[in-house]
Amino acid sequence: MLDRIIAIVNDDVITLTDLNREGAALFLRITQEAPPEQVERTLVKAREEMLSSLIDKLIVAQRAKKMGVSVANPEVDSAIGRIIEGNKTTPEKFWQQMTLMGASEPDYREIIRSQILQEKLIDYEIRSRVVVNEERIREFYEKNYTQKMKEDAYHLLQMGFVWKENTPAAKDDARRRAEEVRKQALAGEDFRTLARQSSNLPSAKDGGDIGVFKKSEMAAHMKVGLLGLQVGQISAIQETPAGYQFFKLLSDKGDARLQSSYETVKEQIRQQLYEEALSSQFQKWVKELRDQAYIKKLL
Question: Can you give the pTM of this predicted structure?
């Protein structure tokens, strides 16, 4: 019995057998779980989406072949071994479960091979395009890691310069250090970096970020420092019982908020943004390959 060709992609073809093999688990789940009156319509849509996915995979495989990129059997074995270990099961039970889901071992191995091939091509052609800078991380943090406050509140960065002994010379030295660093901040140098490098306060490790304060929660020198201050501006130097401080106002009127310090979630945010950007770049790359390819659907 001859197989039916359902798509032509450059010099290769996709058959109905290819589609049924790739979508076996999904198609089985639809027939078992979808309402009877929706099964056929849902299967039609699933087949169309699966065919589109197969075309993308074939285009990627063709690109890999052109570049001389391949996946050896030991690489597939290792990847499957990690999956089995991650599921805390045995190979026998794992393959039994795959069979129940409608996927044979050879078919599943080809799926894994395709995924590894995709990762290799991402390494070769896409990762260099993806850059997540500090500004994007900071913007995501300000938007997602805080929570609105009902009354006026102020998100502050702080630097402090303490004197080790209560003498005129020690006070003058602390004042001098505060003035020097404040001038750097006013000149456009990053406040958080300066705080880490120069501030004597515990908040230095968080880039001077002391979070969100209501006015009722502020010390007197903080209230004085914030008088007339606009968002983004740096306050005058204020004397405290132990030294000198100045602040940068990040936001007010309840617009800025804080749940976790920036430093504790920075790398987590970076990884999330990186993965999102990588996925976006991959989709753009595949679309470029699609636009350059000859594709004819016959389904």
Answer: 0.53
